[in-house]
Design goal:
The chain has about 200 residues and is α/β, with parallel strands linked by helices. The protein has one domain: Spore Coat Polysaccharide Biosynthesis Protein SpsA, Chain A. It contains 6 helices and 9 strands, in the order βββαββαβαββααβα. The strands form 2 sheets. It has a 7-stranded mixed sheet with strand order 5-4-1-6-8-7-9, sandwiched between helices. Strands 2-3 form a two-stranded antiparallel ribbon. Helix 2 runs antiparallel to helix 4.
Length: about 200
């Protein structure tokens, strides 16, 4: 995966969690972000974090922290654009894999399977009949097109961007109803995530 860079999208405002950095909420003996980094780091050649504000709060993770390059907090597509522009400056990076910062149990073979299906283009994940476009693989060469989509066309949804670039949908199994892309949106989701991390009873 030497030609694949990665970006963890952690710039959301976490309104349903009472605000603040949702990814820094405790989960087990660490944080949500610790789990995400542990899963994402082995799958890519270089990894960065998309987040606004003071980057020092993420210092212990040892990752580049990329703020939005587009004003007014337009959402995860701005983080994806920042990641693509960062990846373009890396030697040999052809694609960027994106990971949701609030999903601590995604597959360890996510990037391998996206790469196997994407060819030179884009791909995104699905499970249980539901699309999860934040978990995607995006050509670095598409960064100018994404900037135009954000700034000129007002595009805001990752799902719409995936359709625009013709992303291949890669389905991942959800054994026993366990969504591999479960994300923590509310305080009660933390308990559910801990149960999933603990594995079968």
């Amino acid at each position: 995966m030497g030609d694949i860079a990665g970006i963890i999208l952690a710039g959301g405002r976490a309104r349903r969690m009472g605000g603040g950095d949702k990814v820094l909420r405790p989960l087990g003996r660490s944080t949500i972000l610790d789990h995400v980094v542990a899963l994402a780091r082995p799958q890519v050649a270089a990894l960065a974090l998309s987040a606004n504000g003071d980057p020092r709060r993420f210092e212990r993770f040892g990752l580049p922290v990329l703020p939005d390059g587009v004003p007014d907090f337009p959402g995860p597509l701005a983080g994806l654009l920042a990641g693509l522009e960062w990846a373009a400056a890396l030697s040999g990076a052809t694609h960027l894999a994106s990971f949701a910062g609030d999903s601590p149990i995604f597959p360890a073979d996510l990037v391998c399977r996206l790469v196997a299906n994407a060819g030179s283009g884009a791909a995104c994940a699905a499970s249980g009949g539901r699309l999860h476009p934040v978990f995607g693989l995006w050509p670095v060469a598409a960064r100018d097109e994404l900037r135009r989509a954000l700034v000129v066309d007002g595009l805001r949804r990752v799902e719409d961007w995936a359709r625009r670039v013709g992303a291949v949908v890669v389905d991942f199994p959800a054994p026993a109803g366990r969504d591999p892309f479960f994300n923590v949106n509310r305080p009660e989701d933390l308990a559910a995530a801990e149960t999933m991390l603990a594995g079968p009873a």
